[in-house]
């Protein structure tokens, strides 16, 4: 061993030595004097390095010896224990006198006996002695030391023939497509084949040299320094000092560039310094050190996580298309598209009446106003009232505090959808609420009389009259609401008499509507009869009202906050970084609606009242309003645009009136797309990537340039001309080419299409009720996974086959062909591998991706090819993704095998897939072709 | 059918470890040959190649019993101490003439009966009772041929199978259930050629194959299923078989097919077609994170000249002291496995033994060596005391 290692050391050292003169040569011409010195230096460096290297290698050998030795000690302990273990069951089973062992044990004795017999007879060859006395049992056959070619005479036991399942590669079930992960790529990776007939390994080497070269470069770029190399570098520098010559020598020794060596030395130097530092610290001031150490982690703990950091991972990991974290289909770190149209936040205002969101709602605690606009309008009154209110509520509040905190402790719910359905339900017990609201409204009247005095003069008389008309029903229902919840509908119609003395009240409601319009103009759309008019009112109110009010309220807030006791202030100070961050987000999303912010973002952290309180304080301190105002302004502009777009698109669609539109699919999409639809059967469909255009897409829109429609995931607004606008088909009509969605090879989308939705449940949850297949849209089955039960079995044709459990009708959707999404380049490489095995699960999806179901897929991957199939495969655009659906071409009976035409490209098709007379050609038995076969869909979507 | 054959390796050796990370290479000449073996017997089973031979080291009652496998036949023998004699105890022949057994492994049944598991090109695993000499059951599930079976020595009713279908499966011989399937997102990307249980850590399995990788799998999260399998009384197909998709560790030690891997304590012995067996240590870092390629420390190399075709497997004695491997030319090398540097104990050759030795078997104490050859012969070598 020692000889080999030292010889390698010499082998490496030799070229180093030989290269010295060559390196020294130029220096002779430059400075002839120092030649001798240089040579000496070289010799010294080389000698030192050689010494160090030998030392390192010796260390390594010692290390290995030690490791092997310790491993051996451990293993020895273990094997000895195991040997004991093995011996113990022997004794046990001997006691049990197992029948099963008879044969082996008996044999043992007889064999030995037999052997001794043969020994006696001197027949050293030990030939079998079946002619001896024991005929009842087959005699063991003994092979002597030199018995060539003897046949065994033991009667062999036949193992009954068992047919194994048809061959397959182990695969994992996928219920939706996945993008290939980087480590699964076969591109640039060497694969070695063996020929089942010959004795050769074939290494796949087809013009992949470039890839290999690239990889080599990458590998060379990174050199990981071993401990040994580090120590050589360190000690050499310690001994000889840093010199370019030494660096060169070291680089040659290690096999990298001298810059790397230099960099490495710096790292080592720093590490060494660190070590020294820590050591010094420990020696010098161990006590202070401990203090510092004990403090710092605490600081970190009390410092809560910044929301920004949390949001960062959210942005990176959350898929906004699938609404899941770590989406396998669209991947992480997607480009974030900010939609031009913001989704309207859910609001707790029903028919213009804010409902308290919980027991801790600011509506109850700061009862003078609605949750969303208490800040600007009636802070003054609200807080005054609040004082009294608090006294009133104190007793009940305390009781509720405990229970509600438990309730609110649920996890933070990011999804609006869920909150939509749940948040309406959580209201305080009705009796409690009634009492509260009664008192609330009374006091509201009183207080608002005071507060609004300053506001009313600012307004035009007629305007306020109008508003009075407009708002009175709402106010009315506020007063009545707890008692006659069911009467709201009547109130809506606005035919109730206006209460006397409501002038002043109405001004309050004016503020309410103003806010409503600035922050969510179409929140009220449904219930509001006079949308247009109220919109007209916005500017004037906006200009007139807020200025004096906010001033008032700010002042008042300050005084009130201080007046209201220190307890509250302390609560406000308890806001953590995370909570504040969440609050800021809440302002962006919901505007100043403390109910929604508390409910959706700060659930379990802060109650609605606390949020309201915080808002007041923020405004008071002066740094809040700017941001708040900015965000409110932003949403307002967005909503204006949205409202305009809406009006343009649907021509002022109103509730209750359904216009019968003569709607052809030609009017739906951009002409470019239409052109492609008309003539482009042969073009592969294009992969859709959401564009981040603002408002409307211009000519530079990536979607447009790529030849795809804009989808709901794009940044552009709904009015974008490049958008696919869905269909307006009547229910259940979306199953022919009359439907623009169907014609374009797309599934209907409830977000986009007008009448296409599918109900579920009995409607009690607020959604549409389940109405049966004949009423629901039938062009959403891939998305909804309404698939048939597919069974796997031995095919009548070849290998595995997919069978149907239940009978299906024509055009029925059977299931999805899922798999890994791989690039075309990857597919070419994999295709070559699969062609060797003559089983391909590749399926062309679009211009970017090929589906590979080989290792990941579902049972439909086993559906066989037939030129006269009973099914067909179709690529469909479902929510922006291309997916492959298998559909029945005809009526299929239960238990029938599923076939479809793989539609291989003519020149690449394997022999069995080529059109032939025999429709049921054996799939796996025929020789391979050189091409790479891929399945193709029938229709092409856009 | 010469299935398991390969031409000379064209692959370059794996990237060198760098200065200070060089493995210790055993010398083929320097070793003191302190032991001498001589041929004591030769059996000819037939003309067809024998792929597997295995001593029953699991049950101390039958340490001298071994089994061989080739074509559609599995034979059970007993090694007699005197004169190198070998007695045939049982023979099992598959009715399917196409079947070609590649591997055998011993197991222990519920009541301590000596079981033998064998499998091959059909992919069906057969369990026979060698005590009674009866056929017990078949395990169906593998989608292609099975290349190796191994038994968990601590729980000898558990066997692992390595298959061409790119999976490793864990079976319970007694209850007949397939407990786990090691395949999927992080699994092998080509045939699995070899599998082995960690000798002391019951939760670890190593496997290697034609994708040039060696993977270490952990049963930790799935141990409850293994426990469940011991008491499973329902029909085996109802067992909730789980997929283990991600290995604990993924090593790229070789640059060609890896056809044999064995644990040596916490280290791993593995061989490719590079004329050597490599001893390396997996450097587990950051538990939980399955790095694409884990770091390994190659400690030692045991050169084996003329061993450049695949499907040649090595064996160790019970205490892992000797490491025995045959080569393409019918020669056998006996290495001291656990010394540093590795020492060559003996180099065995016989003028009539010329055909590739597919697998060797080493008796409990290493005194008897069996080799099964491509030409259907079994050679017995005994230590000359």
From TrEMBL, chain A:
Entry-linked CDD domains: SET_EZH
Pfam entry (one): SET
Chain intervals with Basic and acidic residues compositional bias: 121-130, 911-920
SET domain: residues covered: 788-903
Polar residues bias spans: 921-931
Ranges annotated as biased composition (Acidic residues): 206-218
Location of region: Disordered: 112-139, 199-224, 391-461, 541-565, 911-942
Regions annotated as coiled coil: 35-88
Cited InterPro entries: CXC_dom (IPR026489), EZH1/2-like (IPR045318), Hist-Lys_N-MeTrfase_plant (IPR025778), HTH_CLF-like (IPR058609), Pre-SET_CXC (IPR041355), SET_dom (IPR001214), SET_dom_sf (IPR046341), Tesmin/TSO1-like_CXC (IPR033467)
Residues annotated as domain CXC: 674-773
Signal peptide: 1-24
Skewed-composition ranges (Low complexity): 393-405
Keywords, ordered alphabetically: Coiled coil, Methyltransferase, S-adenosyl-L-methionine, Signal, Transcription, Transcription regulation, Transferase
Catalytic activity as recorded in UniProt: L-lysyl(27)-[histone H3] + 3 S-adenosyl-L-methionine = N(6),N(6),N(6)-trimethyl-L-lysyl(27)-[histone H3] + 3 S-adenosyl-L-homocysteine + 3 H(+)
Name the record gives this protein: [Histone H3]-lysine(27) N-trimethyltransferase
Organism listed in the record: Sphagnum jensenii
Automatic annotation (TrEMBL), chain B:
Residue ranges of WD repeats: 139-181, 185-220
InterPro entries cross-referenced by the UniProt entry: PcG_WD-repeat, WD40/YVTN_repeat-like_dom_sf, WD40_PAC1, WD40_repeat_CS, WD40_repeat_dom_sf, WD40_rpt
SMART domains noted in UniProt: WD40
Keyword Repeat: yes
The keyword Transcription regulation belongs to this UniProt entry's keyword annotation: yes
Key words of the record: Repeat, Transcription, Transcription regulation, WD repeat
Family under the similarity heading: Belongs to the WD repeat ESC family.
Name this protein carries in UniProt: Fertilization-independent endosperm protein
Origin species: Sphagnum jensenii
């Amino acid at each position: 061993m020692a000889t080999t290692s030292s010889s390698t050391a010499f082998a490496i050292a030799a070229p180093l030595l030989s290269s010295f003169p060559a390196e020294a040569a130029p220096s002779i011409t430059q400075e002839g004097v120092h030649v001798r010195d240089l040579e000496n230096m070289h010799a010294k460096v080389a000698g030192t390095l050689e010494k160090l290297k030998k030392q390192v290698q010796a260390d390594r050998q010692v290390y290995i010896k030690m490791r092997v030795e310790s491993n051996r000690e451990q293993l020895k302990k273990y094997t000895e224990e195991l040997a004991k273990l093995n011996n113990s069951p022997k004794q046990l089973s001997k006691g049990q006198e197992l029948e099963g062992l008879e044969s082996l044990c008996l044999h043992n004795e007889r064999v030995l006996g037999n052997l001794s017999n043969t020994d006696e007879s001197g027949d050293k060859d030990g030939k079998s002695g079946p002619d001896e006395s024991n005929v009842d049992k087959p005699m063991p056959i003994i092979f002597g030391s030199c018995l060539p070619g003897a046949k065994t005479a033991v009667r062999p036991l036949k193992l009954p023939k068992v047919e194994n399942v048809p061959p397959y590669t182990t695969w994992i079930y996928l219920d939706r497509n996945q993008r290939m992960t980087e480590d699964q790529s076969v591109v640039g990776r060497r694969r070695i084949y063996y020929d089942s007939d010959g004795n050769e390994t074939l290494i796949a080497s087809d013009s992949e040299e470039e890839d290999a070269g690239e990889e080599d470069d990458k590998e060379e770029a990174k050199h990981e320094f071993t401990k040994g190399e580090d120590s050589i570098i360190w000690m050499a520098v310690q001994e000889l000092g840093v010199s370019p010559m030494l660096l060169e020598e070291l680089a040659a020794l290690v096999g990298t560039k001298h810059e790397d060596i230099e960099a490495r030395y710096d790292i080592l130097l720093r590490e060494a310094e660190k070590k020294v530092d820590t050591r010094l610290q420990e020696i010098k001031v161990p006590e202070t050190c401990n203090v510092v150490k004990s403090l710092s982690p605490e600081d970190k703990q009390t410092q809560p996580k910044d929301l920004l950091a949390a949001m960062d991972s959210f942005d990176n990991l959350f898929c906004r298309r699938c609404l899941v974290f770590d989406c396998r289909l669209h991947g992480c770190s997607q480009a974030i598209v900010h939609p031009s149209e913001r989704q309207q936040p859910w609001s707790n205002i029903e028919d213009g009446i804010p409902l308290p969101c919980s027991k801790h709602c600011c509506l109850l605690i700061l009862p003078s106003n609605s949750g969303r606009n208490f800040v600007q309008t009636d802070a003054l009154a609200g807080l005054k009232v609040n004082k009294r209110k608090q006294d009133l509520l104190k007793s009940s509040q305390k009781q509720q505090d405990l229970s509600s905190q438990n309730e609110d402790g649920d996890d933070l719910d990011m999804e609006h959808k869920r909150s939509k359905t749940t948040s309406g339900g959580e209201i305080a017990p009705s009796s409690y609420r009634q009492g509260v609201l009664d008192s609330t409204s009374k006091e509201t009247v009183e207080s608002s009389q005071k507060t609004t005095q300053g506001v009313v003069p600012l307004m035009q008389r007629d305007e306020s009259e109008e508003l009075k008309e407009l708002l009175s029903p709402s106010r009315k229902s506020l007063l009545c609401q707890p008692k006659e919840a069911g009467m709201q509908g009547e109130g809506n119609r606005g035919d109730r008499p206006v209460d006397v003395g409501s002038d002043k009240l109405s001004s309050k409601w004016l503020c309410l509507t103003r806010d409503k319009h600035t922050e969510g103009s179409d929140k009220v759309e449904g219930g509001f009869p006079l949308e247009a008019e109220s919109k007209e009112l916005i500017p004037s109110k906006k200009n007139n009202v807020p200025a004096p009010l906010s001033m008032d309220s700010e002042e008042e807030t300050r005084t009130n906050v201080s007046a209201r006791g220190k307890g509250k202030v302390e609560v406000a100070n308890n806001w953590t970084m995370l909570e504040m961050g969440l609050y800021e987000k809440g302002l962006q999303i919901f505007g100043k609606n403390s109910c929604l912010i508390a409910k959706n973002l700060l659930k379990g952290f802060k109650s609605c009242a606390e949020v309201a309180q915080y808002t007041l304080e923020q405004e008071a301190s002066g740094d809040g309003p700017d941001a708040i105002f900015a965000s409110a302004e932003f949403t307002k502009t967005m909503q204006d645009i949205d409202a305009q777009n809406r009006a343009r698109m649907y021509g002022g669609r109103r509730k209750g009136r359904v216009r019968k539109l003569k709607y052809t699919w030609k009017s739906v999409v951009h002409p470019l797309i239409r052109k492609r639809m008309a003539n482009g059967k042969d073009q592969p469909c294009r992969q859709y990537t959401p564009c981040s255009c603002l408002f409307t897409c211009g000519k530079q829109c990536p979607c447009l340039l790529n030849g795809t429609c804009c989808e709901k995931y794009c940044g552009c607004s709904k009015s974008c001309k490049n958008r696919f606008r869905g269909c307006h088909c009547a229910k259940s009509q979306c199953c022919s080419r009359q439907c623009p969605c169907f014609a374009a090879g797309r599934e209907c989308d409830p977000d986009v299409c007008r009448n296409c939705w599918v109900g579920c449940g009995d409607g009690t949850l607020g959604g549409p009720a389940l109405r049966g297949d004949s009423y629901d849209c039938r062009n959403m089955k891939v998305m909804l996974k309404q698939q048939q039960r597919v069974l796997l079995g031995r095919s009548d044709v070849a290998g595995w086959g997919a069978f149907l459990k239940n009978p299906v009708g024509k055009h029925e959707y059977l299931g999805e062909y899922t798999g890994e999404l791989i690039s075309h380049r990857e597919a070419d490489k994999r295709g070559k591998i699969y062609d060797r095995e003559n089983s391909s699960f590749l399926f062309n999806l679009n211009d970017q991706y090929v589906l590979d179901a080989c290792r990941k897929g579902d049972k439909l991957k086993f559906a066989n090819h037939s030129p006269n199939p009973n099914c067909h495969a179709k690529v469909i655009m479902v929510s922006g993704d291309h997916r492959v659906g298998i559909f029945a071409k005809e009526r299929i009976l239960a238990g029938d095998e599923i076939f479809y035409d793989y539609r291989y490209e003519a020149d690449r098709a394997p022999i069995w897939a080529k059109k032939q007379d025999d429709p049921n050609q054996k799939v796996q038995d025929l020789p391979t072709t050189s091409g790479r076969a891929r399945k193709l869909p029938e229709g092409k979507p856009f | 059918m010469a299935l398991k054959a390969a031409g000379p390796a064209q692959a370059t050796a794996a990237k060198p470890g760098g200065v200070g990370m060089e493995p210790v290479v055993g010398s083929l000449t320097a070793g003191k040959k302190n032991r001498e073996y001589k041929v004591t017997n030769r059996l000819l089973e037939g003309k067809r190649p024998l792929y597997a031979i295995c001593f029953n080291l699991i049950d101390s009652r039958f340490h001298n019993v071994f089994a061989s496998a080739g074509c559609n036949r599995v034979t059970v023998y007993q090694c007699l101490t005197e004169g190198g004699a070998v007695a045939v105890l049982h023979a099992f022949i598959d009715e399917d003439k196409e079947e070609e057994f590649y591997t055998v492994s011993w197991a222990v049944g519920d009541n301590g009966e000596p079981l033998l598991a064998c499998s091959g090109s059909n992919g069906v695993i057969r369990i026979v009772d060698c005590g009674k000499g009866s056929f017990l059951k078949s395990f169906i599930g593998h989608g292609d041929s099975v290349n190796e079976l191994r038994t968990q020595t601590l729980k000898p009713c558990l066997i692992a199978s390595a298959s061409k279908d790119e999976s490793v499966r864990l079976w319970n011989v007694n209850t007949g259930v397939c407990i786990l399937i090691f395949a999927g997102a992080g699994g092998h990307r080509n045939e699995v050629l070899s599998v082995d249980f960690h000798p002391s850590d019951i939760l670890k399995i190593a496997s290697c194959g034609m994708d040039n990788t060696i993977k270490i799998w952990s049963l930790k999260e799935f141990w409850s299923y293994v426990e469940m399998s011991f008491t499973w009384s329902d029909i085996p197909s109802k067992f909730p078989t789980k997929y283990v998709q991600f290995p604990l560790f993924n090593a790229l030690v070789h640059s060609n097919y890896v056809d044999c891997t064995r644990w040596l304590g916490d280290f791993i012995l593995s061989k490719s077609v590079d004329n050597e067996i490599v001893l390396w240590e997996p450097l587990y870092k950051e538990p939980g994170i399955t790095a694409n390629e884990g770091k390994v420390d190659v400690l030692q190399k045991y050169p084996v000249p003329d061993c450049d075709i695949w499907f040649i497997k090595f064996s160790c004695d019970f205490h892992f002291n000797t490491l025995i491997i045959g080569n393409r030319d019918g020669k056998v090398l006996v290495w001291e496995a656990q010394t540093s540097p590795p020492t060559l104990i003996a180099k065995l050759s016989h003028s009539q033994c010329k055909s590739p030795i597919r697998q060797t078997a080493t008796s409990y104490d290493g005194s008897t060596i069996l080799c099964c050859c491509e030409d259907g012969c079994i050679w017995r070598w005994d230590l000359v005391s």
